[in-house]
Write a structure and sequence with these properties.
Layout: H1 5-11, H2 13-23, E1 38-42, H3 47-53, E2 59-63, E3 68-74, E4 84-89, E5 92-96, E6 99-107, E7 116-121, E8 128-129, H4 130-146, E9 150-151, E10 173-174, E11 177-178, H5 193-199, E12 202-209, E13 212-222, E14 230-241, H6 242-247, H7 253-256, H8 259-283
Parallel strand pairs: 1-4
Antiparallel strand pairs: 2-3, 3-6, 4-5, 6-7, 7-14, 8-14, 9-12, 10-11, 12-13, 13-14
Length: 302
Amino acid sequence: MDDGNLAKRPMKVYLTIFLFFLVACEKKEPPMTGKDSFIEVALHAPIKAVLDGSTQPFSQECMKHLNLCWYKFEKSANDKNLPSVTIKNSDSTLVIPKVTSVTIVIDDRVGDNIEGVDISLRGLPDNSTHQQNIDFIYQLIENLLSSGWKHYYFPGDPRISGAEAPKVDAPGRVLGEYVSSHPWLDPHYKPDINQWMKIGAFYDWYFYNNNAYLNLKAWRHDSKDNPAETGTYLITMGFATEREYWVSGFTEDKDKAHWKELLPGELEVSKERRLRLEEKARAAGIEIDETYQDPPINALRK
């Protein structure tokens, strides 16, 4: 397990993202009428509560030999009545408008409660300017922050905030070392257009809230006619409970089954890496955000 593994978990949706771009704009569906359009998902709640309370139909596909079931809602981005999705976690409520898909995977070996939710939402019209998309995404980020979601640093990454972004001259790395929690993508920092374009096609912001974790992703597809100015973006959100987040960092089933026993050792390795990178950053004149403390992990409390 390493600090990149949570980022790798949602990476499986990038194939879905690619297929989405191929077909989303081709579908035409009539708008829903006669009732409100919404979906409410509470982390840790039974999947039945979502299915019974939703005004939208979910498909179900199960693979019994894997003990997994996929529950999915999906609509075309062209639909005129896309639902809002409310995500509830502890005492936090987040409302996400104009959602095009919701995917919930239930592992029967764990139970029928919701451990993770992946959401895609409609962004701006195709070939809007990159600056318009930046503004749109950061409005979403403001909504997340105001709903109680906080900036999350990976345990092995240096705590370098966006305030230090001008001292970091390359995306994805700090002083030559790969980091997932890059200061250019601190949710409290809005990169300028030059930084934005240098980052590349994929953007990730990380948050936590009351023992749950969130990965906000954007995929940029530049236009053919004016790639430096305009493009099409797909935006997704991946929510995970504490258990789902940390288990996803282990690749072997035998390790997943013993994640509580293995995690302290992995966190110690991450801590040593963070200390080393922060010492290196201080020597280069980069300040460390000493106010940030890693969120507690309830499963490890004695």
